[in-house]
Amino acid sequence: MKEIIYKGKKVKVPFEDANYTLDGDKDVVIANRFGGEECTVPGYAAAVYDVIIGAEQFKDYDSVQKGCDWFSRNFPKQYMVLLD
């Protein structure tokens, strides 16, 4: 797993090639694509979410599972809103 620095702390993230710096230290609001319920996650978690959704579109289910496992461990409430 790759490590990034977020607000001075090391955080392990699941995907080597994702752009974890796009939103920097900002929080990002993401809406559930089916029901519209919203939740807030750090920018690096939004990058993981984006990879999961993209992998799903390309039927890369190993990456989907890898991202969902990480998300459910690190952001369980947001996982339930966005990905469950």
The gist of it:
The protein has three helices and four strands, in the order ββββααα.
Q: How would you characterize the overall build of this protein?
A:
The chain has 84 residues and is of the alpha+beta class. It has one domain (2-82). The chain has helices at residues 43-57, 61-74, 76-82, and strands at residues 2-6, 9-13, 27-31, 38-42. A hairpin with a 2-residue loop joins strand 1 (2-6) and strand 2 (9-13). Helix 1 packs antiparallel against helix 2 and helix 2 packs across helix 3. The longest helix has 15 residues, at 43-57. The chain is globular and about 35 Å long.
Q: Which short descriptors sum up this protein?
A:
alpha+beta; two-stranded antiparallel sheet; single chain
